[in-house]
């Protein structure tokens, strides 16, 4: 019999590679040196175990079901006993992380209490409703399985596995359907450089407004903490140490970014209660930490948008000079492949301006075709399994035989690609679809609760997607795997579970069509509750770019970006430390890049701030912000500033002429010899003139209103 030594060596090396990749992901989103172990270890296993499933599934497909099976395996394989142990360890650890460990730790990290015991109690209390729904559903399912199978041990185990699988499959199908459309569409849209710039400008006002709201919310809480620190006597003295910690937290934030802004808040005053309680302080601490992470999140999004705008504009500007440089030797770039690039300015221009768009279109078409194959296989896998396209790409040896065929090394690689793409489609949708509490992945500054939540979703989706993929290959093949003997038999334990496993994936058409035709945005505009259910992503509603034209959305975004990059806002000079403070950890070590604006390819340098974040002093409200943006359209036209070109501007002749005349008049400087003109002219007495000079009246025009029966300016 063949020896599995080479396959075992390959499996161990693959697991080491997966571990290294997971550590790099954690390092990207979390500061490893300052992150506590109770966060790093569970999140590491929550990512490592699902990633190892992508390795186990192809190995299981090619491995024999018994030690003496014929014919011999043709790819990477493991003995049945080793596979069985691997599946048990992987599944039950993933199950425990998904349903128990990660939810409790997430609420523990989000709790505002000081003592660990109080944090644990608060976490259990917060998860009580969640566990009540879980155990209630489990009890109903257990009664049904026990009535159908009449075996207590198998019924209990089958109920737990089947319910966890069904809930994970519902979530996975919805998210995967969204991602199967979103990924190819994003690649196609990014191929158009000018269209990419226009979409970034359309996103700018929304991100800017959220950033302003997050800042004002944080400032309100900081003022409340400051007022609390000044209170003396009474119940405050019972929690003096706790209050001092909050004051130090706010003071440290103010010292790091002391020049960033003047405190203004939202104007909604929050008064202190007469009696300070432990519960109130815990809620204040929780809200303060959440507000800091929310501000950091939107600062990061704004910084990333500015960087993308600068890169995209540099690519457009390189059409004339045939040279492209994203920074001085790549030092200002935050992308590793730019710093290590072997391109010179000319070859970089050729790649980004001519080659990259076609590569994006190629991969967009390839992944779009893969999405069609996945959706088609979901629809025909039950009634017409021989029509599944994925089946023929994986099984290269006797795919129509009674045994279901045999998977070789090439089939294993293709199976890993299919599984990775399905998981990527679902996981990318998690980052796009709106979720509660404003959870987000932020570079080097992800909130602990958000890290636990995203890790739990990865663990929850991996097993349902893996088993769903195996059903594409036909019952003759996947029912002869160790995975089916461990998990599939319990899912198909009852007719209800078997029919659900085969028929429910057909509902993938709902999220596919909803995303493809922008139904989320239409539902939200018609009924107003689309966002409440987390429907739609950042690309939803952008299928027709003309919907943005004429609304001022992209123009407002263009003006915002120009003011930020050129430093024309008055608050830019007072808030240079914003991005530095947001990317600085508690020990003072800065994490995250500072955007460096590259030199223009035409020879003029972009003398904007190295830290691009700034806010307008007139942006406290939506209306005033829009007026300020409208009046600032002439910003950035001087030499040496970053001016964002807008190819394909849809202004007609009269609109363009009006804007040019307005900009010209606004830039007029009144000569000194003309400023005193008219001061010596008096109005005649029959016009109501008196000793007022210059034809001006203290009542602001009341003389004119007298001609039409008006009063003295009272109205």
Automatic annotation (TrEMBL):
<dbReference type="InterPro" id="IPR051584">
    <property type="entry name" value="GPCR-associated_LMBR1"/>
</dbReference>
<keyword id="KW-0812">Transmembrane</keyword>
<keyword id="KW-0472">Membrane</keyword>
<feature type="region of interest" description="Disordered">
    <location>
        <begin position="684"/>
        <end position="715"/>
    </location>
</feature>
<feature type="transmembrane region" description="Helical">
    <location>
        <begin position="409"/>
        <end position="430"/>
    </location>
</feature>
<dbReference type="Pfam" id="PF04791">
    <property type="entry name" value="LMBR1"/>
</dbReference>
<dbReference type="GO" id="GO:0016020">
    <property type="term" value="C:membrane"/>
</dbReference>
<feature type="transmembrane region" description="Helical">
    <location>
        <begin position="358"/>
        <end position="377"/>
    </location>
</feature>
<feature type="transmembrane region" description="Helical">
    <location>
        <begin position="128"/>
        <end position="147"/>
    </location>
</feature>
<protein>
    <submittedName>
        <fullName>LMBR1-like membrane protein-domain-containing protein</fullName>
    </submittedName>
</protein>
<feature type="transmembrane region" description="Helical">
    <location>
        <begin position="499"/>
        <end position="520"/>
    </location>
</feature>
<feature type="compositionally biased region" description="Gly residues">
    <location>
        <begin position="697"/>
        <end position="715"/>
    </location>
</feature>
<dbReference type="InterPro" id="IPR006876">
    <property type="entry name" value="LMBR1-like_membr_prot"/>
</dbReference>
<feature type="transmembrane region" description="Helical">
    <location>
        <begin position="37"/>
        <end position="59"/>
    </location>
</feature>
<keyword id="KW-0175">Coiled coil</keyword>
<comment type="similarity">
    <text>Belongs to the LIMR family.</text>
</comment>
<feature type="transmembrane region" description="Helical">
    <location>
        <begin position="159"/>
        <end position="181"/>
    </location>
</feature>
<feature type="transmembrane region" description="Helical">
    <location>
        <begin position="12"/>
        <end position="30"/>
    </location>
</feature>
<feature type="region of interest" description="Disordered">
    <location>
        <begin position="576"/>
        <end position="647"/>
    </location>
</feature>
<keyword id="KW-1133">Transmembrane helix</keyword>
<feature type="compositionally biased region" description="Polar residues">
    <location>
        <begin position="598"/>
        <end position="619"/>
    </location>
</feature>
<feature type="coiled-coil region">
    <location>
        <begin position="204"/>
        <end position="231"/>
    </location>
</feature>
<feature type="transmembrane region" description="Helical">
    <location>
        <begin position="89"/>
        <end position="108"/>
    </location>
</feature>
């Amino acid at each position: 019999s063949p020896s599995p030594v080479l396959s075992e060596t390959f499996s161990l090396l693959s697991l080491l590679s997966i571990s290294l990749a997971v550590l790099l992901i954690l390092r990207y989103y979390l500061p490893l040196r300052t992150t506590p172990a109770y966060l790093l270890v569970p999140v590491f296993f929550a990512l490592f175990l699902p990633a190892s499933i992508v390795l186990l599934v192809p190995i299981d497909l090619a491995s024999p079901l018994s030690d003496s099976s014929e014919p011999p395996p043709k790819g990477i394989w493991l003995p049945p006993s080793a596979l069985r142990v691997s599946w048990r360890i992987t599944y039950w650890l993933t199950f425990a992380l998904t349903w128990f460990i990660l939810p409790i730790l997430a609420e523990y990290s989000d709790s505002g209490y000081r003592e660990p015991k109080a944090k644990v109690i608060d976490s259990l209390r917060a998860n009580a409703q969640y566990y009540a729904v879980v155990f209630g559903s489990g009890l109903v399912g257990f009664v049904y399985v026990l009535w159908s199978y009449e075996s207590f041990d198998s019924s209990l185990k089958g109920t737990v596995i089947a319910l966890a699988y069904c809930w994970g499959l519902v979530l996975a199908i919805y998210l995967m359907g969204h991602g199967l459309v979103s990924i190819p569409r994003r690649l196609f849209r990014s191929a158009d450089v000018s269209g990419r710039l226009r979409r970034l400008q359309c996103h700018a006002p929304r991100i800017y407004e959220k950033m302003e709201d997050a800042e004002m919310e944080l400032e309100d809480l900081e003022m409340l903490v400051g007022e609390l620190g000044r209170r003396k006597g009474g119940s405050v003295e019972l929690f003096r140490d706790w209050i001092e910690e909050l004051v130090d937290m706010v003071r440290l934030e103010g010292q790091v970014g002391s020049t960033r802004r003047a405190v203004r808040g939202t104007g909604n005053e929050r008064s202190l209660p007469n009696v300070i309680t432990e519960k109130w302080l815990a809620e204040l601490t929780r809200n303060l930490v959440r507000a800091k992470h929310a501000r950091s999140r939107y600062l990061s999004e704004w910084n990333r948008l500015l960087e993308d705008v600068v890169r995209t504009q540099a690519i457009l500007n390189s059409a004339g000079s045939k040279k492209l440089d994203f920074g001085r030797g790549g030092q200002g770039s935050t992308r590793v492949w730019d710093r290590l690039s072997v391109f010179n300015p000319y070859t970089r221009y050729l790649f980004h301006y001519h080659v990259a768009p076609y590569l994006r279109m190629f991969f967009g078409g390839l992944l779009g075709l893969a999405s069609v194959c996945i959706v088609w296989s979901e629809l025909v896998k039950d009634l017409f399994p021989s029509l599944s396209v994925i089946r023929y790409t994986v099984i290269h040896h006797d795919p129509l035989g009674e045994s279901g065929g045999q998977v070789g090394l090439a089939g294993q690689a293709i199976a890993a690609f299919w599984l990775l793409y399905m998981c990527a489609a679902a996981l990318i949708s998690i980052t796009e679809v709106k979720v509660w509490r404003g959870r987000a992945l932020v570079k080097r500054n992800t909130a602990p609760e958000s890290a636990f939540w995203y890790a739990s979703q990865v663990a929850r989706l991996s097993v349902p997607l893996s088993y769903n993929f195996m059903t594409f290959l036909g019952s003759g093949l996947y029912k002869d795997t160790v995975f089916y003997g461990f998990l599939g038999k319990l899912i198909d334990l009852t007719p209800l579970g078997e029919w659900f496993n085969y028929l429910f994936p057909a509902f993938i058409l709902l999220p596919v069509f909803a995303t493809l035709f922008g139904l989320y945005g239409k539902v939200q505009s018609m009924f107003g509750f689309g966002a409440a259910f987390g429907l739609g992503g950042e690309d939803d509603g952008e299928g027709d770019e003309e919907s943005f034209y004429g609304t001022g959305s992209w123009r407002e975004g263009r003006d915002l970006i120009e003011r930020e990059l050129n430093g024309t806002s008055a608050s830019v000079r007072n808030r240079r430390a914003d991005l530095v403070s947001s990317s600085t950890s508690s020990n003072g070590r800065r994490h995250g890049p500072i955007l460096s604006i590259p030199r223009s390819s035409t020879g003029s340098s972009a003398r904007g701030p190295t830290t691009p974040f700034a806010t307008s002093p007139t942006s406290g409200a939506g209306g005033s912000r829009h007026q300020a943006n409208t009046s600032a359209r002439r910003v950035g036209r001087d030499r040496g500033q970053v001016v964002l070109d807008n190819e394909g501007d849809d202004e007609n002749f009269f609109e363009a002429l009006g804007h040019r005349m307005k900009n010209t008049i606004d830039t007029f400087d009144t000569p000194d010899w003309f400023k005193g003109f008219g001061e010596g002219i008096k109005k005649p007495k029959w016009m109501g003139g008196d000793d007022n000079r210059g034809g001006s009246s203290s009542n602001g025009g009341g003389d004119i209103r007298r001609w039409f029966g008006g009063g003295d300016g009272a109205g």
